[in-house]
Amino acid sequence: MKTLLSIIVLSTMALGQEKAITIAKKDLPKLAECLICNASGTPMGMEKPAAGATYKGKNYYFCNSAELPKFLKSPEVYIPLELPMVLPDFNLIDTSGKVWNNEAFKGKLVLLDYWATWCKPCLALKPKLDTIRDSYKDQGLEILSISTDEKQATLDKFFAKAKWDNPVARDTNKTWAGLKVITIPALFLVKDGKVIAEFRGNPDLKAVEAAVKANLK
Asked: What does pTM read for this prediction?
């Protein structure tokens, strides 16, 4: 995911943004959650922060001082999404030829699954997501698998051997950038064109299923 992260950083730098300000060590709280761990889908809970910064009136903390320069360089990359939110510009074509644009999500409940052929946790997650899909597809749930593989040939080679039941689209338009995907797997539940829930890293499948059930037609 280093390639994805570097592109997001360059994009936010090009747009310009407010500067984040370092919090003095003496002013750090005794315990806090690490922003970057949470953004990466590896939350560690409350722990002693090694560094912190203020951005747009809010304080953010980090479990490792090496994470602070990353945040200061491009804070928008790591700031949590404010949900619910309108799905950022989306225009992909899946392997069946179906166009998935913002209009295609209207009136639907779709779980976006960002993955890659080289991502072992993603592949381990797939059959578990299949179980959720099979349980609720008759009630309107759809799953769209979005591959972050850089080359179509890589995806073609993978599918020459692997079976994949739900639609797959390669992320040729970098839709992950608008959703701040810096690690995979990453899941986003979209209802009627709005992102209403996100699950990053190793997702809590009970929480995923609960979110699906709560938003079925």
From this structure: 0.84
